[in-house]
Amino acid sequence: MSVLKILAILNILLFLGIILFYRGDKNRLFIKYILLSFPLLSLFVVPMMDGFDIITIIFGLFFYRKRDVQLYNGAIYTILFSALLVVIATGLILSGQYGTDTLHEIIAVFTMLGFAKILIDECLHDPYFFYKAIGYLKITLLASFVFLAGQFVFGVERFSLIKTMNPNIILADAVRYPSFLSDPQTYSQFLAALSFTCLIKDPREEKFNKLNYVFVVMALVSIMVAGGRAGLMGWALGMSLVVMFGNASYRYALVTAIIAMYFIAINFQDKFAIFKRGGDLNETYEFRHSIWMDALTIFQKHPFFGIGFGNYANYVSVHHPDQVWVIDNEPLYFDQPESGYLKFLTELGGLGFICIFGLIMIPMIRSFVYYLISKDTSLILLIAGILAWMVGFYSTYSFGDTRIKLMIVTLVSLLISSRQRLEAIYDEMAAGDETEENTMLPIETHESPA
């Protein structure tokens, strides 16, 4: 039995041991455990289910307790998700083929839905639980820095959670570090998205901890170590949104980050893979462009329902056999066309693409409109994080890693619950102010006549 499988089993057993004897709120414990055991969740125990799937299914069957809450204006999400299921089923029936990843991807659709439902309900039940979830994401980000440091010391090949070494990691003149993720491009998306959570402040705290700015700079340094150009572009676009619509303190933070990055880059540029990839830029683009053209051809042949969910590798092995890696003298067909957007278009068609990105874009648009009213910066920061991921998503299908799916589902779920959550907080604050005013009113006394 491999070390990775042992780690996966131990993670599940640890969850069972904790949940069985925990006397507190088990729904919140589930969310906490998932976000804090993040690095281990993509490890497979059985071929069709990874750690996240198994833990979520066990919790949903035996420990979940329904909350007496209701999400307002949530019907659109139910409609889009139901339509997505119809598209998936229709695409698989029409294709008549099932890839090796199909069953796992279908299971993941439902386990991600279950996690999103529980997280949204918890944020509606307790509006301040939102800030605990943000805290767990920050801890996960810091854990990636620690793991990255371990790779510097021991080397990527000795210190990783990868079963098969990705060809994008060790290059001719550079090493691109993926931390506990499977791909350096995926890691750069992870860093770009979660760095914005470091800037979210709990309103119950009097002062914002300036150490969070250090974490943002560390995320940028890690992006350069990973050699993630698209991730860096995504972060820049997300930060531009924050600077345009956020308060002045973020402008100062951006200037500080740029100055810090300038001095770090000047003194340690030989350590950063991102500065060593200029020579392969044209070659990389030509390689990807050919695959993108093939993917567009596939989409044009199957424009509505696609070739079948999780069926890309199976399809190209027959129709585009040149899309193949040779690893350890064995052919490994591409399971994605070097673009997340094209992956959805080819496998799910235009209808599935609309459903998936409708579930992502509608919360972003609604939250942005509400931000213009409420000016709560947590909204614009979550939007910036998702936007940063979306930029990087064009260059690689990062949803192949369960942890990136989980990250985006978490950020989107926090956005979905935000308006209702913030209105509850504002009502609570208004009620507190009214109570305070009433206690300060003078008490009238009536003297008895002499």
Itemize the secondary structure elements and their pairings:
Blueprint lengths: L2 H19 L4 H11 L7 E3 L2 E2 H12 L12 H21 L6 H24 L3 H26 L29 H11 L16 H16 L2 H17 L2 H21 L12 H21 L10 H8 L4 E4 L2 E4 L6 H35 L2 H17 L8 H39 L10
Antiparallel strand pairs: 1-2, 3-4
Give an overview in words.
- By secondary structure, this protein is mainly alpha-helical.
- The chain contains 15 helices and four strands.
- Helix 6 crosses helix 8, helix 8 crosses helix 10 and helix 14 packs antiparallel against helix 15.
- The chain is globular and about 70 Å long.
- The C terminus is likely disordered.
Give me some keywords for this one.
mainly alpha, two-stranded antiparallel sheet, 450 residues
